[in-house]
C-alpha cells in the first residue's frame, strides 16, 4: 500500500481520564476506497488498559451517585453535539470504513445520536418490583445499582452506531466505561471523545483505548476490575473472550454473527419483497450482521423471482463511497475482500452458478479508487444447503437463492445452520407468517419488511449468534446489579 503523501496522516490518541494521551506504538489504518494508509491508531496494551480502568474506577463513585435525570441531561447534550457535527462524522465514517456517504449520513450517525437520546429517555422510566407478605408482616422490593467499570468491545461494520449502543446504556445506568473500538475503524470514536467534556461527561466516565483485539481487547477482558464485558463481533472471538474471562466469572453480553434466511412464499408481494431483499442482502456491502444471505423461494415463483431479483441487484451502483449516487462502497480490508471472493470461487468449484457480480460482470472504478477493496453485488444459485456459502457467515455483498416446496421443509432448512440471529418471512397469509415466525430459531423475525427496529424490544441472537439481549429493559438489566430487600414491620 502507498502512503497518502499529499496530506499528513491523522494520528489518534487514547482518551483516558478526560485527556488525550499518546501511545508508544501505532498501527496503520487504511482508507478502504483507495487502499492508502491515512491514519495511525494507538497500539495499546496492558499498560494503557490499566490506566483507563483506573480512571474509570476513580470516576465511578461520583457518576454512579448522580440521579438518572442528571445523567439523562448529559446524554441528551451529547446527542445534540453529535447531531450538530453529523456531516463531519458521516464523512469520517465513510472514509474510515468504506461505506457510502449516504449510508453514514442516513443510518450510522443519526442512529449513534439517537442511541444517546433513547437511553437518556428510557433510564427515566424503569420501575422496580415490590411484593407483600401480610401474614409475615413483610414487604419485599428490588433495587438496582450500576455494576462498576464496563468493558465495551465493538466491530468495524457499524463503528460509532454499535459502540454508542453500548456506551449509552452503560453510562445511563451509572457505570463508567472503558471502550475498545475495532482497530480498523477507530476515527469516529476518537471524534466523539472530543465532545464529552462539552456535553458534561465528567473525566473518567468514558475512556477509549484504541488497539487490536489480541492486545488491547484481551487486556480489557482479563482485567480483574472490569466485571462486565459487552461484546459485538464474531462468534470465534466471543469463544476466546468467554475462555479468557471465565476465571473472573464475568458477566457477558455477546452479539455475534448470523447466516440469515429470507423465506419467500408464492403469495408474497414481490413488488415490496424484491427491492427489500436486495437491500437486506447488499446494504452496507452486506457487512451488517442482519443481512440476508440465504434466500429460499417457493417453487411456483422461483424463476420469476430470480429474474427480477438479479435485474434489481444489477441496478446497485458500486464505486466511490463519497459519491452520493453510489449504493455499494468498499469492503473493510484487502484480507476481507479476498475472503469474500474466495467464497464465490468455492461455490463455483462446487458447481453453483453465479448469476451476476463477482467474476461475471465488469467492475468499472473511478481512477482514484483502482486500489480500493470493491466487489459487485453477487447472486449465487444452484448451491447445496451443505455448501460453505450456505452455512458460514460471508459478511460481504454475496447472497444465495434456492427453491423450496413446502412450509415444513423450508423451516427445517432455514434452521439448519449454527447461527440464529435474524430472518425475514414474506407471505400475505397471516396464519402462515405467525406459524413460521414461531418455529424459526432466530432472535429476530421480520415479516414483509426488514430492519424495522423498536429499540425498546430485545435485540440479539440464538445459538451461535449470541448470548443475552440488548434493548431498553434488557440493557438496563445487563448494566445493573439487582438486589432483593425484605423489610419486616
Ligand atoms: P471480530 O470478532 O474480529 O472483532 C470485534 C472486536 O473484538 C474488535 O474490536 C476486535 O479488535 C476485538 N477482538 C478481537 N479479538 C479479541 C480478543 N481476543 N479479545 C478481545 N477483543 C478482541 O469481529 P469483526 O470482524 O470486527 O466484526 C464482524 C463480526 O461482527 C461479524 O461476525 C458480524 O456478524 C458481527 N456483528 C454482530 C452484530 C450483532 O449485533 N449481533 C452486529 C455487528 C457485527
TrEMBL record:
Catalytically driven reaction(s): 2-aminomuconate 6-semialdehyde + NAD(+) + H2O = (2Z,4E)-2-aminomuconate + NADH + 2 H(+)
Any single GO BP term: retinoic acid metabolic process
EC number: 1.2.1.32
Keyword Oxidoreductase: yes
Pathway in which the depicted protein is active: Amino-acid degradation; L-kynurenine degradation
Active site annotation, chain numbering: 255
Domain Aldehyde dehydrogenase intervals: 25-485
Compartment(s): Cytoplasm
This protein's UniProt keywords: Cytoplasm, NAD, Oxidoreductase
Gene Ontology molecular functions: aminomuconate-semialdehyde dehydrogenase activity; retinal dehydrogenase (NAD+) activity
Broad class of where this protein is predominantly found: cytoplasm
Pfam family, one: Aldedh
Gene Ontology, cellular component aspect: cytoplasm
PANTHER family: 2-AMINOMUCONIC SEMIALDEHYDE DEHYDROGENASE
Family of the protein in this entry: Belongs to the aldehyde dehydrogenase family.
Chain's role: Catalyzes the NAD-dependent oxidation of 2-aminomuconic semialdehyde of the kynurenine metabolic pathway in L-tryptophan degradation.
Protein name per the record: 2-aminomuconic semialdehyde dehydrogenase
Annotated organism of origin: Platysteira castanea
Gene name linked to the record: Aldh8a1
